[in-house]
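Q: Structure tokens for this one, please.
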Amino acid sequence: MTTEPRIRIRVQLGDLPLFGPGKAALLGAIADAGSIAGAARNLGMSYRRAWLLVDSMNRNFTGPLVTASPGGRGVGGARVTELGRRVLAAYQAVEADAARAAGRSLTDLQTMIAADPGPSVAGEPE
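A: Here is the predicted structure, written as tokens:
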């Protein structure tokens, strides 16, 4: 096996998914690209999907995580707000803490994983 197991954190409130690796990647990509469309393109997702994720993040926190300026290609843009940067930093800290805490257990688990595990089945519970 060439890769090591890793922890992926998803923050939920009851059954409501608030923040996870996809939204974290999108926030980082928006910060880098300066637009939702550019971030979506860089992540290989549709603009609609990216926009829906941004809308969800903006509705589920105490303020917007991303602000956007309308205008189309070359005119509009988006930026990650101070709150968005704080949420992303806090999420990354939780991920790092979880990885450190799970280190030995993941090492033990890795010894039990098949040498060539097959792909997951869509819809299969983790």
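A few notes: Residues 23 and 53 are 7 Å apart (CA to CA). Residues 11-110 form a domain with the Arc Repressor Mutant, subunit A fold (CATH 1.10.10.10).
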